[in-house]
Amino acid sequence: MLKITIYNEYKHEREDEACAAVYPDGIHSVLQSFIEADKDCAIRIFTVDNVNTELTDEILADTDVCIWWGHMAHELVADETAARVAEHVLKGMGAIFLHSAHMSKPFIRLMGTSCTLKWREVGEKEILWVVDPLHPVAQGIGKYIELEHEEMYGEHFDIPEPDSLVFIGWFKGGNVFRSGCAYRRGMGRVFYFQPGHEMYPTYKNPSIQKVILNAVGWVAPVRRIDALDCPQCEVPIMEI
Amino acid sequence: MLKITIYNEYKHEREDEACAAVYPDGIHSVLQSFIEADKDCAIRIFTVDNVNTELTDEILADTDVCIWWGHMAHELVADETAARVAEHVLKGMGAIFLHSAHMSKPFIRLMGTSCTLKWREVGEKEILWVVDPLHPVAQGIGKYIELEHEEMYGEHFDIPEPDSLVFIGWFKGGNVFRSGCAYRRGMGRVFYFQPGHEMYPTYKNPSIQKVILNAVGWVAPVRRIDALDCPQCEVPIMEI
Amino acid sequence: MLKITIYNEYKHEREDEACAAVYPDGIHSVLQSFIEADKDCAIRIFTVDNVNTELTDEILADTDVCIWWGHMAHELVADETAARVAEHVLKGMGAIFLHSAHMSKPFIRLMGTSCTLKWREVGEKEILWVVDPLHPVAQGIGKYIELEHEEMYGEHFDIPEPDSLVFIGWFKGGNVFRSGCAYRRGMGRVFYFQPGHEMYPTYKNPSIQKVILNAVGWVAPVRRIDALDCPQCEVPIMEI
Amino acid sequence: MLKITIYNEYKHEREDEACAAVYPDGIHSVLQSFIEADKDCAIRIFTVDNVNTELTDEILADTDVCIWWGHMAHELVADETAARVAEHVLKGMGAIFLHSAHMSKPFIRLMGTSCTLKWREVGEKEILWVVDPLHPVAQGIGKYIELEHEEMYGEHFDIPEPDSLVFIGWFKGGNVFRSGCAYRRGMGRVFYFQPGHEMYPTYKNPSIQKVILNAVGWVAPVRRIDALDCPQCEVPIMEI
Question: Of C216, D75, D110, D157, most Cβ neighbours within 10 A?
């Protein structure tokens, strides 16, 4: 059984009526619902209210996959919390960063870059093109995914070159974006997926859900400490 | 004229007689000397004594290439200092991390991983093989570089997969290492180069010097702020 | 002085009036003209009429950079000619493949894949976004290049994952494309650049010219046979 | 049930007594035996005697994974045969190239480079280090694999930079090698694995067998024609 931890900031949905109309129970509840329908899993939810106090080392050590959505309250996540999350990724916990989590503290820490980008919020059309059709995250997806309305995220996106670039996003207003980026960091896998503005029902789209389910499967640990069981340690001469 | 900033911790050379015999004026003075002999440059030196107080934002903004050697005093470099250095790399400053700088705070911050490795200090032979013969850092180097005595640094090395793997190190005692690793991070280039234990005259080896000179040339900024001149900013629809 | 060899199929310009109106002296003459204006170079031109008979081993051995444009007559280039070109790339000759040269025999041979793509010829707008702003090929280019009219080339593009993805193309009709792809193959560098349909004056656009000039500089050999001076050969035990 | 096709040249084992003592029924029979013991599969065997006549398009279309071992008779494999094998890889067939298959025609065709290397046959010790510990091919393998006797294959190895470098080989005589290289080519996956000289019982080593079994699982098709169902074709404007 997969242990999944979802962090959803959960501010927009409580503070903005239009957003609440789209996600009345929060983005996390939509994520939880379609993941539970597909996977044998146990899901824990954290929000900006309790992430610093309750997303403990113990919880993270018991997490296979951590999914992160944040936007306006990145700064309310303590540096220590972000460090804990990143450290567990390096030890093998999978991590999926959704949409504006590109500027969340754990993601920036794992990438080492500013993770800045260009954006525009006019609800324009997006088409997500598969460019790595054999990547596990793209399985069951056709050649592309269409989204009637999304926030534009555009290049230049200041990230390390992905280990695999899985999706490139096309936006009606003239921009492109590296929308699906796969990384290994330490013993953990990381997937960044751009769609998911809080004002649109993106996470209710079956193709978007399929990508996230695939990503859960792909980042789930294959082995955790094995290669790191004597980190930064002295070793004898091999028997040669 | 190239503005170069060298950070050398400068503790081993002052505290250990055997090390002082190899580098009587510090590792930095050997680096400075062969770089000045080759490049039109101005070099500033910082040590653990003044790195936190004098390696200021102004100095870094006036630096093209920052070279970093540290080992036993990584913790004495303040987090704020490390953050300053990393931030300037993202803005375009080149950076070269030498030997045990693999666990320096700025390098770990730029990589996002633990950067741990296996090591052994028995003065064994190393052979550095060129595996990316067209990389600018490998120019003028033959097929390999031999070092009679080096500290062994061995896999698994917990780094992000390099953008280019330039050298693989062979150690007599049975280990291998990704010894020359090239990265882009933000608008800056980063090169990690493994040789350079403080007890051996590695930095006096002409081939090692050639690699470092090449690396200085390669990481020197080609353009700095251009692509980042409106970081994380809203942009209008293109005129289409 | 740079020795440059341009292959332009030169059929459209001679057989189609509309195309001749854009490139009256052939695409090659426009390429030649802006390259000669910028570089100390000697340029040789070959077309489908003489490529098999005159683009000899001797010419290729005396070529630093080979630029290739072909479209409707790929099959008229003999397999032996394609093999010669590819072999010289592996020995260090730089190569730039333009537009529909994505299905030329030498490019397919160097890539090892089918190099197929989706296309549409309606003269739609293209915007080429820089995604690797430090790559030598992107120097002096701003954040993007706009082309009023181009043929659409779209994903999925069946190429090996580029060593560096430099440009992503956006097309008004809804598609994206990996438009600027940099590779090392053997001792040679290869750059594929998508713009350049024969019906539009793309090669007269100063930004497109700048990219091609940059590419000429980047693929020009840095060293040729060095690493291959004993290819597939037996070697003795090292002196260890 | 997995359809597996093994090509073993099968000349050394029939022509050299010492080799026959190690692999009395041919390398293929050892491969077949440990794969059948682990996988639900049907295995077909081809040798240099029938590869050109019997390894047909129909067989390849019915193959999930093709394993290739060849050495002294690469030239006896017809160009058409090699083209067929490579074409089926591009359509989704997995391929594993073992040891001296690095210079087999299908491998060279898929790589686009010369695939030359340095070699030495003195039966020296090899240690294969895992450098991508999360790669599916490295699962269940510890930090390294030791082989008492192997042929040395050394850098520089003229291959395209692997999508993932999984193993680096250390050889007692002073050389290193990129011994485990993973690629995507078209819709197919390719794994090159260096160990397996015909004079040593390498394929009877349980760790080597584990790597090959992992590779069979990894290269087995995840989806085949999907992304290529309209190769090089015209497409209409998207509905935007």
Answer: D110
| Cβ pair A168:C154 closer than 8 A | no
What pTM value is reported for the model?
A: 0.96
Closest CA to A91 of A206, A211, A189, A194: A189
Q: How many angstroms away from the CA of D133 is the closest CA of chain A?
A: 6
Q: List, for residues D128-168, the tens digit of each pLDDT value.
A: 999 999 999 999 998 999 999 999 999 999 999 999 999 99
- Which parts of chain B sit beneath pLDDT 50? none
Looking up tokens 């010790």 gives D125
Residue D226: the pLDDT is 54
Residues A55 and B192: their CA atoms lie apart, in Å, by 35
Which amino acid belongs to residue C178?
R
Q: What is the per-residue burial (b if ≥16 Cβ within 10 Å, else e) of C61-72?
A: eebbbbbbbbbe
CA distances from B141 to A165, B212, B240 (A): 33, 11, 50
Domains of chain B, start order:
2-113+181-227 (3.40.50.880)
d(CA D199, CA D196): 8
- For residue D35, the one-letter residue type is I
Listing DSSP states for C187-228 in one string gives TEEEEEE----TTS-GGGSHHHHHHHHHHHHHHS-S-SSGGG
ipTM of this complex? 0.95
For residue C32, the SS3 value is helix
Question: Which pLDDT belongs to residue D161?
Answer: 97
Check if D164 contacts B (Cβ < 8 Å): yes
Structure confidence at residue D236 (pLDDT): 81
How high is the pLDDT of residue B225?
54
Q: Are A99 and A67 in contact (CB under 8 A)?
A: no
Beta strands in A99-224 (DSSP E): 118-130, 144-154, 164-171, 176-185, 188-193
B228 vs A158: CA distance, rounded Å = 8
Split chain D (240 residues) into runs of 10 and give each run's mean pLDDT.
Answer: 97 96 98 98 98 98 97 97 97 96 98 95 96 94 95 96 98 97 96 98 98 98 62 76
CA distance B59 to B56: 5
pLDDT band at A223 (very low <50, low <70, confident <90, very high): low
User: Who among C111, C186, C236 is closest to D120 (CB)?
Assistant: C236
Gyration radius (Cα) of chain C, Å: 18
Which residue type occupies D47?
A: T
Three-state SS at B72: coil
What is the DSSP secondary structure assignment for residue D207, as one 8-state letter? Answer: H
Residue A71 has pLDDT above 60, yes or no: yes
Q: Does C189 touch chain B (CB under 8 A)?
A: yes
Q: Please report the beta strands in C47-155, taking only residues with DSSP state E, as ranges in sequence order.
A: 65-69, 94-98, 118-130, 144-154
Peptide linkage before D74 cis (omega within 30 of 0): no
Query: What digits encode the pLDDT tens for the residues B169-192?
Result: 999 999 999 999 999 999 999 999
Cα(C113)–Cα(D168) distance, rounded to whole angstroms? 26
Query: Token pair 């693999």 is at which residue?
Result: B102
Name the residue among A127, A134, A136 with its Cβ closest to that of D238.
A127
For residue C121, with 0-12 CB atoms within 10 Å meaning exposed, 13-18 middle and 19 or more buried, which class applies?
exposed
Nearest CA in chain A to C147: A174
CA dist B162 to B211, C201, D162, D164, Å? 17, 39, 12, 11
Residues A191/A219, Cβ–Cβ less than 8 Å: yes
- CA distances for B83 relative to B57, B77, B121, angstroms: 10, 10, 31
Q: What is the Cα–Cα distance from C190 to C164, expressed in whole angstroms?
A: 11
Pull the structure tokens for residue A128. 């997500």
Contact call for residues B160 and A186 (beta carbons, < 8 A): no
Q: Residue with structure tokens 């993932």? A: D164
Q: What is the mean pLDDT of residues C211-238?
A: 80
Binary contact (D134, A240; C-beta < 8 A): no
Measuring CA to CA, which residue among C181, C130, C136 is closest to residue B228?
C130
SS3 of chain D: helix, strand, coil, percent, to 5: 35, 30, 35
